[in-house]
Design goal:
Length: 121
């Protein structure tokens, strides 16, 4: 779980290209929510003078949140702009990605299988 968060935040900070599996998107969302409403909320209650830390964290994960959301839309074969459509985007975010490569890149779920197939040809 932490590996997924690290991958999204540090390795793919502003990468809007390619595809992201459901697991990558939802693990990032879960950890961001836990950090925001768990750790930072408790910190703000204990030390109200440090409330700005929550705002700094929210700004720090804004770009990675958008990037992983756009890559998630790419995984189901949709444009990244679909992330802006309320309610419908939640359905799309929960939808299984397209099997095999699509116009946005290789299938992240089956990349090893695709490499094996290419190697066998």
């Amino acid at each position: 779980m932490l590996e997924t968060y690290k991958k999204v935040v540090f390795e793919n900070y502003a990468n809007f290209n390619g595809r992201a599996r459901r697991r990558e998107y939802w693990m990032f969302t879960l950890l961001s929510t836990l950090i925001t409403y768990g750790i930072l909320l408790i910190l703000m209650l204990v030390l109200p003078n440090l409330a700005f830390i929550s705002n700094v964290y929210s700004l720090a994960v804004l770009v990675p949140s958008l990037a992983v959301g756009v890559r998630r839309m790419h995984d189901i074969g949709k444009s990244g702009w679909f992330i802006l459509i309320p309610i419908y985007n939640i359905v799309l975010l929960a939808t299984e990605g397209e099997k095999g490569p699509n116009q946005y890149g290789a299938d992240p779920k089956n990349q090893l299988e695709e490499i094996d197939e290419i190697g066998m040809e």
